[in-house]
């Protein structure tokens, strides 16, 4: 038996779907007794995640728009008719896709198939089908709530050795990211890279001319077409999609096979060719990213076909579309990417000199302590695309040979040892460590309405660092990590020692 066949996907997904609906939405859902009716002509939304690592593949969670309204209304405590279908429903479908897909990823990791997930994408419309190509195992599970259906599709393929240099165990990677060449990363021209890759494929493999176009017309987003997509995950997450009109996809596949377009009888040859096209162009961008020192793994391609659909990739910081013409038809490439915040952390290593100054003001003759050396524990995240050069640094620190600052000079951050502050007796006192995910304010009438299953919106965005407090004093910030269904916090920023000690005293 193949190692992937030994995993009970049905039980894992069924339990996750039921638990998510119960705890998050206070709704009951159960496996459907029969396959749901065809979705063509019905407004649907599909949340998609891609696996990369020792296992590659795709995870789709599909709902009708009517079920999406019911789910969002249950979460928001409102009527289904009041739900915004393209914000409330889209965001909820993306969140549930993340939860159920994340639970499946944990099950795969526990079974020895280390992998990571891409950011989610949402496809919506009335006529489209999404398939993951070249899978070792494909499963489809239907669920039912009242008269509504939810469908989960999973395609998996063993890909041992395709980790892309990533620590798939989720270990601390902060130090390793200092190897990234930020200048090369900032200089990376995504449009030039992807355009050159596409033109080269068309010339060398298909002998077809491909010409860059100025813009993508609205007509280019309509009609029968195919979309090949590959995702990458790791230090950089994102997606590359190639949108091609159906008749042009047939011409391209025929050119690749040395056939006449009319000789292609089915869609399998077209799907395989489009998948390979996605692999080549997406792999080219992945190579450019890894050349900068980033580690990322590429998913297997997915292929979406239909005449009425839109695809949106979420949680990406840069999204671009490049248009081309071939044989009088327009095709385009979409690229979305997000670079890990850890890459943007300025590298700070070695020793740094701190000067301790006593409290000043009206005090006369305040003493200055000698400089003390302290090893940097971690560097706080920065929004700068690259660390400032010595010439750009606004407040360069004095070197050991620099004269000590005069009494009362508060320009340098103060620090001192516990003994110097007289606080060494506190070292054995237990402290209560709290992680605060966020806060909100509610009127009393809203507070009284809360019940098991109610959802409370917090004044923080997804992905924003969480606060870590000791006895209600902020001491650090970090990001939530999940390992084998257990939560933890990876510290990304620590407040200064003096600030922490002042807050605790």
General description of the model:
With 505 residues, this protein is α+β, with helices and mostly antiparallel strands. Among the domains are: 1-163, 3-Layer(aba) Sandwich (Chemotaxis protein chec), CATH 3.40.1550; 416-505, SpoA-like (Surface presentation of antigens (SPOA)), CATH 2.30.330.10. Helices cover 25% and strands 30% of the residues. Strands 1, 2, 3, 4, 5, 6, 7, 8, 9, 10, 11, 12, 13 and 14 form a 14-stranded antiparallel beta sheet that branches. The protein has a 4-stranded antiparallel beta sheet with strand order 17-18-19-20. Strands 15-16 form a two-stranded antiparallel ribbon. A hairpin with a 2-residue loop joins strand 13 and strand 14 (329-339). The termini are far apart.
What is the typical, i.e. mean, pLDDT?
77
The class by helix and strand makeup works out as alpha+beta
Strand count: 20
For the report, how would you describe the main beta sheet? 14 strands, antiparallel
